[in-house]
Automatic annotation (TrEMBL):
Residues 64-156 form the Terpene synthase N-terminal domain. Pathway: Secondary metabolite biosynthesis; terpenoid biosynthesis. InterPro entries: Isoprenoid_synthase_dom_sf, Terpene_synth_N, Terpene_synth_N_sf, Terpene_synthase-like, Terpene_synthase_metal-bd, Terpenoid_cyclase/PrenylTrfase. It comes from the Eukaryota. This is (+)-delta-cadinene synthase. PANTHER family: ALPHA-HUMULENE_(-)-(E)-BETA-CARYOPHYLLENE SYNTHASE, OS04G0344100 PROTEIN-RELATED. It holds the Pfam family Terpene_synth_C. Keywords: Lyase, Magnesium, Metal-binding. It comes from Rehmannia glutinosa.
Amino acid sequence: MASLEMKNNPVNCDQQGIIRPVTNFSPSLWGDLFTSCSVDHSQVPECYAKEIDVLKENVRRMINDDLFVTALQFRLLRQHAFDALSCIFDKFTDNNGKFKENLKGDIKGLLSLYEASHLRYHGETILDEALIFSTTHLESIENYGTFMGRQVRHALEQSLQRGIPRIEAHNFIAFYEEDESKDESLLRLAKLDFNLLQILHKKELYEITRDRVVECYFWTLGVYFEPQYSRARVMLAKTIAMISIIDDTYDSYGTLDELAIFTDAIERDGAKIWASSSGIECYMNEYGVSEEEAMKEFNNIAENAWKDMNEEFVKTKDVSMEITKRIVNLARLIDVVYKHNQDGYTHPEKVLKPCINGLLVEYFKI
C-alpha cells in the first residue's frame, strides 16, 4: 500500500487538466515467473508423505535438560497455547535472581533463552531479565561469520515469535544444513515438509497471479500457510489486492474532489476508508514531539501489546485457537513488512523480495 513518501512526490497534469501526484511504485519484480507454468500435484512423489511419517518418529527420540532444551520446550509449549510456567528458569539463576554468569559461554542455550523470552507476559520479571541477559551476551559475539554466529545475528534482527513462520522455517533449514552436528533425518524431514507445502502455495499463486498480487498472496501466507486453508488464502489475496487498489487511489492518485465522491459511494455500501496521515504523524502533531520520540513510544506500545497477546493467546479459551493464531500471525506480518519504519509493501525489493523468493521460488534439494 502506498507509502507516506508519496506526499512529497512531484505532480503531473493529465489530459483533463487534473493535477495528480507522480507515483513511484516499484514495477513488478516477478514478470511471468508465476504465470508461465502450472504445478501438477501428481508430480509430487507419494513417497514424500510416507517418508515424513517415518522421520517424525525418529525426531521424537531426540530430547536432555540443559538451558537450550528447557528454553526450547518452554517456547514451544507457549507457542501452542500451553501455559508453561516461567519459574522453570529459576534453576539457571543465582540467589539474587540474576542469570548465572557461567551461562554466557553457552551460545546455543542463550539463543534458545532469547527466543523463549519473547513469549513473556506482563509481570514475568525473570523473562524480562532473560531477554536483557541473553541479548547482551549474544550481541557481544565477535565472530558472526560462523554457523552459530550467523544464526545469532539473524535472531537479533528477527525473533522467531515475531517472525513469519514459513520464512523462519526456511531460514532455519538453511542454517541447520551448515551445522556439522546436524541430524540428517531431521534435516530431510524439514526439507520434505517445506517443499511439499510450497508446491501447493505455488499452485494457488498460479491461479490468481497478476501485477502486485504476488505481494498480496505473501500476506495470506503469513496469516495462514497450512494446507487446509487453501481456499481462504486465494480469497484473502484477492481481497487484499482490491483493498490495495482503493488505498493507492486515496494515497497516490485521486484529487480531494474525486475522493469525496468516491468516499460517499463506498460509505453507502457500509465501508469506511483513513486517507492521509500515519499514526506516527498524528502522535507527533498531537503531542508536539519529534519523530524519534514518537517512534520510541510506539515501540513501547508494541512491546506491551506483544505481552498482552502472548498471554491472551495462551489463556483465552472461549475463542478457537485457530482464530487467535491468525491474529498473532497478522501481528508477525506487520513486524516483518514494516520493520524499522520501512514500507516493505510499497517497496518490495527492499524487504519482501528475499522473503518471497525463499517461500515460493527456491526449493530445497533432497
